[in-house]
Amino acid sequence: MYSCPVCSEKTIGFPRKWLSSSSNPAMCSRCGAGSAIRVADAAGYLAGSFVLLTPTGFAVVWLHSFLVAVLGLVVTVCWYLWRQHKATLVVVAESEQRTAKRSAWLAVLACLVPSLFS
Ligand SMILES: [Zn+2]
Question: What is the full per-residue pLDDT of the chain (118 aa) written as tens digits?
Fold first, then answer.
């Protein structure tokens, strides 16, 4: 369990922390505050995972080994989960949550627009 950044009680489980975002914050069961991992941190961990996978891909091609692919994937997933575990939660204000939800829906609509013209 992870501590809520407002009341410091350990009320947030790993799945909720991992899936938290500004538009869908992890809610504290004690004080009701929303919190999430910073967008820049979460995006950086994801990008770092792809950076870790790149040399794995080169090693797989060079060594022709499926075992290297599995090992690289396991190392990358472990690194990503460890970074998510170590990430600090920040408070998500109600207004910030509303703005993030609007932005998320706008992004979904922006992704759907090209399909209307195909
Ligand atoms: Zn709390």
Answer: 999 999 999 999 999 999 998 888 999 999 999 999 998 898 999 999 999 999 999 999 999 999 999 999 999 999 999 999 999 999 998 888 888 889 888 988 999 988 888 7
Rounded to the nearest angstrom, the distance between the alpha carbon of 19 and the centre of ligand 1 is 17
Is the pTM above the cut of 0.85? no
Tokens linked to 7: 């009341």
Distance 30 CA to ligand 1 centre (A): 5
Q: Are 12 and 4 within 8 A, CB to CB?
A: yes
What gap in Å lies between CA 92 and CA 100, rounded to an integer? Answer: 10
- Ligand 1 centroid from CA 59, angstroms: 45
